[in-house]
Specification:
Blueprint (H helix, E strand, L loop, with lengths): L7 E2 L2 E2 L1 H22 L11 H26 E2 L5 E3 H23 L6 H24 L1 E2 L2 E5 L1 H24 L3 H24 L1 E5 L9 E3 L1 H36 L1
Antiparallel strand pairs: 1-7, 2-3, 4-5, 4-8, 6-7
Keywords: Membrane, Transmembrane, Transmembrane helix
Protein name: Sensory box/GGDEF family protein
Pfam family, one: MHYT
C-alpha cells in the first residue's frame, strides 16, 4: 500500500545486509591498520603508496562501502535511489580525509599526542561528512529532517572511534591486536552510521526530486562490491610489491 502524503515513513532493516555492512567495515579497518604501520619509512619519510592504500582501505572500504551496504539494508515504503555525483563525491571525501587524518596521527613515524588528537578530530568529522553526504544523495518521495541532538551524538561516536583506531594503528604491532582493533573500529563506524540514520525523519511527498543521474537497486550493490573489491586488489598489489622489494633488498645485503 502506497504511503499517504505527509505520512512519517518508518524504516525497517535487512539483518543480513546489516551484518554484511559490519564485516566489510571490519575488512577495511583491518587493511587500513596493516597499511598504516608502513606509512612512514625508518627515516621518517612518507611512503606515498602505503599512505594511499591506508586511506583507501579506511575511507573507501571501511567507511564508504559500509555506508552504502547499510543503506541497502535500510528499507522504506517508497523506492530509494542515489545521486551519482554526490555518491562519488562522498567516496572521494572519505578517502582524502582518511588519508590526511592518518598522516597527522602518524607524525612522520613518531607518535605524538598533538598529531593524534588532530587526526582523530579530522577523521571523526570526515566519517560524519561522508555519512551525511551519502544520506543527502538519497532520491526518494520524502523530505528528510534531522534531529540535531542525535546528529551530535553520532559525531561524538565518530571522533571517539577515530581516536581509538588511530592510537591502535600506530601503537600496536601484533596482528592479533590489530584484528581486535579492527573489530572495535568496525563496531564504532557501524554504531555511528545507525545512530545517524536514527536522527533522520522521512516525511512522504508526492514525487521524488528530479536529478540528472541516479543509481539504485542491484546497481548500487554491484557498485559497492566493485569498489570494495577493486580497492582490495590494488592494495594487495602495492603491499605485495613492497614485500618483494624488501626481500630483494634483504637478499642483496647478505
Amino acid at each position: 500500500m502506497d504511503p499517504l502524503l505527509g505520512q512519517l515513513l518508518t524504516p525497517r532493516y535487512d539483518a543480513a545486509l546489516v551484518l554484511l555492512s559490519y564485516l566489510i567495515s571490519f575488512w577495511g579497518a583491518l587493511l587500513a591498520l596493516q597499511c598504516a604501520k608502513s606509512m612512514f619509512r625508518k627515516d621518517g619519510t612518507l611512503d606515498l603508496g602505503m599512505t594511499v592504500c591506508a586511506a583507501a582501505s579506511l575511507g573507501g572500504i571501511g567507511i564508504w562501502s559500509m555506508h552504502f551496504l547499510a543503506m541497502q539494508a535500510y528499507r522504506l515504503a517508497v523506492p530509494i535511489s542515489y545521486d551519482v555525483w554526490l555518491t562519488a563525491a562522498s567516496l572521494v571525501a572519505a578517502i582524502v580525509i582518511s588519508g590526511i587524518a592518518l598522516y597527522l596521527a602518524g607524525s612522520h613515524g613518531k607518535f605524538k599526542v598533538s598529531g593524534w588528537l588532530a587526526g582523530s578530530l579530522l577523521a571523526g568529522v570526515g566519517v560524519c561528512v561522508m555519512h551525511y553526504m551519502g544520506m543527502y544523495a538519497m532520491n526518494l518521495r520524502a523530505t528528510m529532517s534531522l534531529n540535531l541532538t542525535t546528529v551530535f551524538i553520532s559525531l561524538v561516536i565518530a571522533i571517539v572511534a577515530a581516536s581509538a583506531a588511530l592510537w591502535l594503528a600506530f601503537n600496536l604491532t601484533q596482528l592479533l591486536h590489530r584484528i581486535v582493533a579492527a573489530l572495535v573500529m568496525a563496531l564504532a563506524v557501524c554504531s555511528m552510521h545507525y545512530v545517524g540514520m536514527f536522527a533522520a525523519n522521512m516525511i512522504c511527498t508526492t514525487d521524488a526530486p528530479l536529478i540528472p543521474l541516479k543509481i539504485g537497486g542491484n546497481y548500487l550493490d554491484v557498485s559497492v562490491y566493485f569498489v570494495a573489491g577493486l580497492l582490495s586488489l590494488c592494495i594487495f598489489w602495492v603491499v605485495l610489491g613492497r614485500s618483494m622489494d624488501d626481500n630483494k633488498l634483504a637478499d642483496s645485503l647478505h
